[in-house]
């Protein structure tokens, strides 16, 4: 089974010349956040993620699974998906019931929030690792390890009481173990297979320069933007010739609405030292053809654009003046009525 997983991963992982195209381990996980406002009012938010890409969502009222991509069902049959959904739905219902029934005993005070993350991660050279982690009010509470629930030290006595109860249900423990050790790895591989065209696509970044907020008298903030690229790994750096500028500040890589990514990289410099600086962008979609943008060219381009705009405005004004002058001086037909 391990050899089969390794073979499939090597076949399905996004490829490219950039060694950072893909980071191990690759993870599939379901996240469920339940807000308990009272014994009779609960709100649930659910989602599923393949690494940092959301693949599924849940409707709060009906717990219906929403498949966010055409390939989000993987290669599982409808019958198998329904069965997995039913098991997950039952698990979350029983978890909520246990909290309702023992809220006073466990000293759970409304309102409170419970976070559950469960899934599996796979490495090319190792077997898959399943996990279930439960958080209470944003802190570690429980985890599922070696087929039993283990309390977190941060969970105190309450976590211990919950584990004692949950570990009594041997059938549930076996179902959870099967989900994270067998069902999850198979589904992860099927997602990679069904979505390989989408996941292995290459989208070239667009890049441009702009000035940022002034950092102080006599200084400039140079900002280089890269947007619309996929996959996520990208290298952007301010350079002087072939020398990387160590003061370069990199923002987080943020998602765009279309599934691509955005990044900005800035450099605080003396205004007199801005000349000769460039921003270099490397991405797997570009091959060996890096994008290089020169700050001097940006300034020149800005003046050229401004000159073109001013010229167009002047021409438009001249045309308006000529038209008005011609209209004012045009002979009136009322002085010479036609018979």
Automatic annotation (TrEMBL):
<dbReference type="GO" id="GO:0048006">
    <property type="term" value="P:antigen processing and presentation, endogenous lipid antigen via MHC class Ib"/>
</dbReference>
<feature type="domain" description="Ig-like">
    <location>
        <begin position="185"/>
        <end position="285"/>
    </location>
</feature>
<dbReference type="InterPro" id="IPR013783">
    <property type="entry name" value="Ig-like_fold"/>
</dbReference>
<keyword id="KW-0391">Immunity</keyword>
<dbReference type="GO" id="GO:0009897">
    <property type="term" value="C:external side of plasma membrane"/>
</dbReference>
<feature type="transmembrane region" description="Helical">
    <location>
        <begin position="302"/>
        <end position="322"/>
    </location>
</feature>
<dbReference type="GO" id="GO:0030884">
    <property type="term" value="F:exogenous lipid antigen binding"/>
</dbReference>
<dbReference type="GO" id="GO:0030883">
    <property type="term" value="F:endogenous lipid antigen binding"/>
</dbReference>
<dbReference type="GO" id="GO:0071723">
    <property type="term" value="F:lipopeptide binding"/>
</dbReference>
<protein>
    <recommendedName>
        <fullName>Ig-like domain-containing protein</fullName>
    </recommendedName>
</protein>
<keyword id="KW-0967">Endosome</keyword>
<dbReference type="Pfam" id="PF16497">
    <property type="entry name" value="MHC_I_3"/>
</dbReference>
<dbReference type="GO" id="GO:0005615">
    <property type="term" value="C:extracellular space"/>
</dbReference>
<keyword id="KW-1133">Transmembrane helix</keyword>
<keyword id="KW-0393">Immunoglobulin domain</keyword>
<dbReference type="InterPro" id="IPR003597">
    <property type="entry name" value="Ig_C1-set"/>
</dbReference>
<dbReference type="GO" id="GO:0001916">
    <property type="term" value="P:positive regulation of T cell mediated cytotoxicity"/>
</dbReference>
<keyword id="KW-0812">Transmembrane</keyword>
<keyword id="KW-0732">Signal</keyword>
<keyword id="KW-0472">Membrane</keyword>
<keyword id="KW-0458">Lysosome</keyword>
<keyword id="KW-1003">Cell membrane</keyword>
<dbReference type="GO" id="GO:0048007">
    <property type="term" value="P:antigen processing and presentation, exogenous lipid antigen via MHC class Ib"/>
</dbReference>
<dbReference type="InterPro" id="IPR011162">
    <property type="entry name" value="MHC_I/II-like_Ag-recog"/>
</dbReference>
<dbReference type="InterPro" id="IPR011161">
    <property type="entry name" value="MHC_I-like_Ag-recog"/>
</dbReference>
<dbReference type="InterPro" id="IPR037055">
    <property type="entry name" value="MHC_I-like_Ag-recog_sf"/>
</dbReference>
<dbReference type="GO" id="GO:0010008">
    <property type="term" value="C:endosome membrane"/>
</dbReference>
<keyword id="KW-0325">Glycoprotein</keyword>
<dbReference type="GO" id="GO:0006955">
    <property type="term" value="P:immune response"/>
</dbReference>
<dbReference type="Pfam" id="PF07654">
    <property type="entry name" value="C1-set"/>
</dbReference>
<feature type="signal peptide">
    <location>
        <begin position="1"/>
        <end position="18"/>
    </location>
</feature>
<dbReference type="InterPro" id="IPR036179">
    <property type="entry name" value="Ig-like_dom_sf"/>
</dbReference>
<dbReference type="InterPro" id="IPR007110">
    <property type="entry name" value="Ig-like_dom"/>
</dbReference>
<dbReference type="InterPro" id="IPR050208">
    <property type="entry name" value="MHC_class-I_related"/>
</dbReference>
<dbReference type="GO" id="GO:0005765">
    <property type="term" value="C:lysosomal membrane"/>
</dbReference>
């Amino acid at each position: 089974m391990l050899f089969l997983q390794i073979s499939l991963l090597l076949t399905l992982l996004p490829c490219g010349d950039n060694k950072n195209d893909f980071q191990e381990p690759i993870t599939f996980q379901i996240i469920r956040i339940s807000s308990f406002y009272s014994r009779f009012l609960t709100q649930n938010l659910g989602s599923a993620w393949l690494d940092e890409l959301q693949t599924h969502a849940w409707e709060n009222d009906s717990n219906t699974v929403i498949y966010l991509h055409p390939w989000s069902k993987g290669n599982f049959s409808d019958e198998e998906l329904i069965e997995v959904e039913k098991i997950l739905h039952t698990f979350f219902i029983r978890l909520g019931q246990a909290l309702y029934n023992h809220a006073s005993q466990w000293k759970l005070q409304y309102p409170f929030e419970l976070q559950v993350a469960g899934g599996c991660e796979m490495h090319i050279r190792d077997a898959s690792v399943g996990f279930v982690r439960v958080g209470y009010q944003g802190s570690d509470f429980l985890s599922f390890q070696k087929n039993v629930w283990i309390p977190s030290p941060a969970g105190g006595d309450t976590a211990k009481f919950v584990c004692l109860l949950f570990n009594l249900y041997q059938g549930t423990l076996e179902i959870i173990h099967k989900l994270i050790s067998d069902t999850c790895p198979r589904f992860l591989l099927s997602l990679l297979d069904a979505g390989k065209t989408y996941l292995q696509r290459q989208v070239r970044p667009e890049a441009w320069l702009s000035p940022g907020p002034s950092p102080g008298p006599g200084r400039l903030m140079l900002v280089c933007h890269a947007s619309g690229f996929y996959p996520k790994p990208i290298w952007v750096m301010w350079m002087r010739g072939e020398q990387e500028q160590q003061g370069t500040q990199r923002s987080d890589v943020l998602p765009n609405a279309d599934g691509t990514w955005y990044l900005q990289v800035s450099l605080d410099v003396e205004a007199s030292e801005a000349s000769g600086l460039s921003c270099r962008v490397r991405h797997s979609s570009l091959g060996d053809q890096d994008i290089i943008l020169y700050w001097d060219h940006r300034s020149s381009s800005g003046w050229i654009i401004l000159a073109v705009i001013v010229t167009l405005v002047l021409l438009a004004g001249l045309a308006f003046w000529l038209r008005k002058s011609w209209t004012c001086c045009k002979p009136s037909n009322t002085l010479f009525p036609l018979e």
